[in-house]
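Reviewer comment 2.1 asked that we show a complete input and output for one of the modelled complexes. We chose the flavin-adenine dinucleotide case, as it is the one discussed in the main text.
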Amino acid sequence: MASVSIVGGGVIGLSIAYECRKRGFEVTVIESGVCGGQASGAAAGMLAPYSEITEDPDDFFKLCQRSLNLYPDWVEHIMQSSNESFEFSNCGSLYAIFHEADLLSLEAKKRWQSEYGIQSYLLSGDEAREKEPLLSDDVYAALWCPAESHIYAPGYVKALIQACRNAGVSIIEHAGEAELVDGEPHLVSTDKGLIKGDFIVLATGAWSQNWEKGLNCSLPVFPIRGQICAYDGPSLSHIVFTSQGYFVGKENGTLIAGASEDIAGFNTSVTEHGINRLESWSKKVLPDLREERPFHKWAGLRPASQDGFPIIGKVIEKPSILIASGHYRNGILLSPVTAEIIANEIEEMPQEIPIESFRPERFQFV
Ligand SMILES: Cc1cc2nc3c(=O)[nH]c(=O)nc-3n(C[C@H](O)[C@H](O)[C@H](O)COP(=O)(O)OP(=O)(O)OC[C@H]3O[C@@H](n4cnc5c(N)ncnc54)[C@H](O)[C@@H]3O)c2cc1C
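Response of the prediction step:
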């Protein structure tokens, strides 16, 4: 049986591990700390490509849409294999605007969405408040998109870990910073010894630029900190998007408000400024939060690539090594499709969607 060793135990590495194991590979995950301990455990868990993507659809849109479509079956498999359940809510979203001038962009968005068969509905402020009574009277209009959903990210990660273990994936945590061994494209060195793999997948999120030297190629991935907080209620029945933040109600009674986009290196602490900004915007969108303070604040590092697209595929000069990184704001959403693409690459199977725009070699060699 061929073997696949995956460096990085976030949602991307774990999803690839699960998919490769399902396809019959012997799989090892190598994680420097604990699986899900970085961006994946910090995420709001929205599966919301239609609200996130404002421009006309491109290959990235197709990637997101494919993943959203894969989600229901994927979740069912993960729940069955792990014997654990986690929140997966098909609640839909409302993209709220506050000024008449923003109506044009909302209308344009609705137009391209309907061209691509996505149902969305333009609502007046009053119609939006009928759907979501907590919305401020200042909301002028909203785009309602019933197809968007969210999951509880920490529960998803926990189930993925268990699903991988139950399926026979070997997970090595606290392995230190894994490194490629010079001149050995099938070996990774870790604090727990050398790990072999017929294929090595590098799924190391915001830390992916560290591989540039070993691979002798450019991997421009940068950490973008997201600060985020949670209130103890009130509850929302839709994801609420706005130009400056989003709100997601979870079934455990918390209301998540996110998220900043800061450049702070690899620092994952929250700042007063970052959380204050979220708090004051929360009060504007949901006036019921005026007297509330968040009970929990945290931050994670989104892996942002230079062109904003994820980096997925074989390293052309070293085809036993594959990259799966740069998922930026959508790594939770993109986890099933990334697993599918990487497993297809390894098996040399045709892809379901165009992936040329995501190949690592689009960046210049160093
Ligand atoms: C505040 C916030 C909110 C977000 N909300 C959403 C959302 O609503 N929807 C959505 O789709 N996405 C969201 N995201 C983005 C999403 O969380 C990320 O895109 C996704 O988690 C990236 O997954 P990953 O596995 O690539 O990275 P990570 O989860 O960061 O995992 C990478 C792992 O690699 C390990 N690692 C790194 N280098 C090495 C090494 N040399 N050796 C061994 N291990 C190594 C790290 O320890 C880490 O555990 C959000 C992110 C943040 C921060």
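The longest strand covers residues 221-232. We note this here for comparison with the apo prediction described in Section 3.2.
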